[in-house]
Amino acid sequence: xxxxxxxxxxxxxxxxxxxxxxxxxxxxxxxxxxxxxxxxxxxxxxxxxxxxxxxxxxxxxxxxxxxxxxxxxxxxxxxxxxxxxxxxxxxxxxxxxxxxxxxxxxxxxxxxxxxxxxxxxxxxxxxxxxxxxxxxxxxxxxxxxxxxxxxxxxxxxxxxxxxxxxxxxxxxxxxxxxxxxxxxxxxxxxxxx
Length: 193
Fold this sequence. Notes:
Layout: H1 7-30, H2 34-41, H3 49-52, H4 58-82, H5 87-99, H6 107-117, E1 128-133, E2 137-142, H7 148-153, H8 158-172, E3 177-182, E4 185-190
Antiparallel strand pairs: 1-2, 2-4, 3-4
Helix pairs in contact: 1-4, 1-5, 5-8
């Protein structure tokens, strides 16, 4: 294993940080005791990637951080549901997370932002496979479900993860774009096309 950090490692770590921000928002919204939550579920180390990563096992360390972040997200959603926060309110949190990123002006930009901000395992997992790409539309499919199991471990429906992700991706899309999903097929197209 390489002992040197490459741009892909920073890219992946940034995606973990983005998910951790959503987790913080969920905890704030639910009024959860953050200290207890992070004591039980662990937390992403503060500071830069170089300060914490195991350079003798870069891939393994990042894989571990992804798994822990996925567990924290599922637990934070579970706590929010226990506190009576509706699915619609959760979708609004995720929508705002996506909308807080720079808005996209083309379907291809949305797809790129999904890949740059959504945590989909390691790059070698190849979770998103491009099906069609034109100036007016892009379609991709999810090749495996890396997220649903974490939600099920918390007693949640695995589909809830994808509903929340749909809200996030809708937030990423600009005003002139529309996003839709059918099963594991994702489409972003220009409106009125």
